[in-house]
From TrEMBL:
Record's keyword terms, sorted: Signal
Protein name: FAD-dependent oxidoreductase
Organism the protein comes from: Phormidesmis priestleyi
Statement: the UniProt record of this protein carries the keyword Signal: yes
Biological processes, Gene Ontology terms: NAD+ biosynthetic process
Residues spanning the signal sequence: 1-33
Amino acid sequence: MPTSLIRRCSAGAFGLLLAVVSLPLGRTQSANAQTTAIETTATPDETVECELLIVGGGLSGTSTAYESLLAGRTVCMTELTDWVGGQISSQGTSALDEAKRQRELLFYAAGYKELRSRIKDFYGEQNPGGCWVSVSCFLPRDANTILSQMLNDAAQRGGGQLKWFPSTAIKEIALSADGRMIDSAIAIQHTPAANAPPLNSETLSATLTDSYRYEDSERFTKKVIQFTPPATPKQAGPANWYVVEATETGEVIALSGVPYRLGLDARSPLNPSSPTETGDQYCTQGFTYTFGMERTATPQPQPEPAYYAQYAPYFSYERSRDSKDYFDYVFTYRRIAAPGPRLEGSQFGVSKVAPGDISMQNWTWGNDYRPGTAADNLILTADQLAATGQLAPGGWLGGLRVETLAKGEENAYSYYHWLVAGDTDSQLGPNVKTPNPNHRFVFGFDAPMGTAHGLSKHPYIREARRIIARPAYGHPQGFMVNEIDISRADYRDEYYQTSLGPDRYLKLWQALAGLNTAAVIEDQVPAADIMRRTRSTIYPDAVGIAQYAIDFHPCLTLSPPEAPGNTEYANIRKAHGQAYPGQIPLRAMIPQKIDNLLIAGKTIATSNIAAAAYRVHSFEWSVGVAAGKTIDFSLQNGVLPYELVDNLPSREPMLEQLQRQLNAEGNPTAFPDTSIFNLDWEAWRVW
């Protein structure tokens, strides 16, 4: 931590499509392919019973807990940090990313609408920061307060019980002898040791490994907690508890050995914009340590971090503008506090910047850190995990490269210094960047990020391990939501015919034919004569909704990312842009092999391109609702989640019952007028 900154369709059509576009998924990651029991290695200090163990207290974990508490369930929830809310709290991205039409209609899950209302009630306005990227920007510390109260209120209203375990890291998973059930889980909760500084005094890179070790340290005192199902369950059934994977990077996925993907998918008719023929497991989207900076009336000392020169060649305002108002453009982009009198006039459709205003920084050519090689990737692959001993019994240490975390932290501090003191721009050239010294870096336990060092408690993670769900009708190698299921891309672009070649290009257009799929295959219609459907794929097992742009913060070509002249992975932004309103299929939440594990958050079964849209705030809430309601339904009815979808595309009466419940309670499973016949979605562009 730099001391200088410590200041404050029909079945027939599906069958034909399967024959045409079914392709190998490429290399999968499944490290623990055992079918025998996995036992934990530690003796617990405490055993805790619950009907749901939610691993990860981000937005999807919080919404899973919220729905489960309303249903009267006993919920255990662990979280590596000491805040609930993930994206909008501990990761600092407290600016709601929302699609325009969806926001206009407030067409969201009920709990997400309640969250938005509580933000407005808390501040007296929906956008207390007066930002322009969103209609709601606010302080991360307040998001934790608001969500905590929502969970308390849900427990009171529904009669559920929340057992909350902050500062707790998942360590081991115990599987049954046949490998189909999680029998128990071990976690480690840490508190400050005697005479040690408070939590959040050090950055995550300094504390991560310690948090995952059983032994006490000079920094932490540890408690080993075993989570188990209730000794006396409320209902008898094939499973008497469930584990929900809601971590930011897919820790339970890696630990439990279910098949998953990481990084770029191979180019195919289903993901035609992929820039690689083989896939690339090291290239995931950039991660970001957010921070707050305050406008001051007078210039402030701006000491240069010792490592600044290493990172300075990376930074850029990125977007060319007609006038030289770059700095305020970036500052108001995610301004999260504007506590003083608003100045007359406006900039970018919002009020002008005044002293005391605080901006949260989250910028692609700024504090995004974008590694993409085997030497510096953040989320370790299965091979890397095995090589470092993290898949051995008791060896799990979080599955991240700590050195890359540390460099992301240095990059964030350096970006602040560039903003206030730098005079270069890596993308726009000279005579663009001027110093802006009337600012201070904000830090402290009462500051927006709640940390002594001023960075977010955890980096914002845009892309994680993603399961390959169970084989299903039309998906013999595992179900997945793919690019063409949601993208509005112009697939007539010559790029696709060139990169795919004629055979795969034809298969792409056959897959895009919608209701005409069978006919265009049988009649051998040329690709140039096929009309595409102009809607997203409609899923019979939809349990939630999602819409946002396919939005990339891509990895960079060279290592390290800050290398002068570095460029984004070639052609990686080809899919970047508009997407149709989409759905969350239950099949995407059900992993292979394990029957009482449900996946929430950005770790559901999507390709990396689809994941770029299925990652924002309202999606996380909606998928959490789906997880909570599906588990409650399964416990009540004595079924396993996969049994709700295993006969598709035939009717699944119990699935339909679950969907009716979701919709009746204000949790939509489809957007208005969703139909295989409705091809007019122009009003639903994201921006």
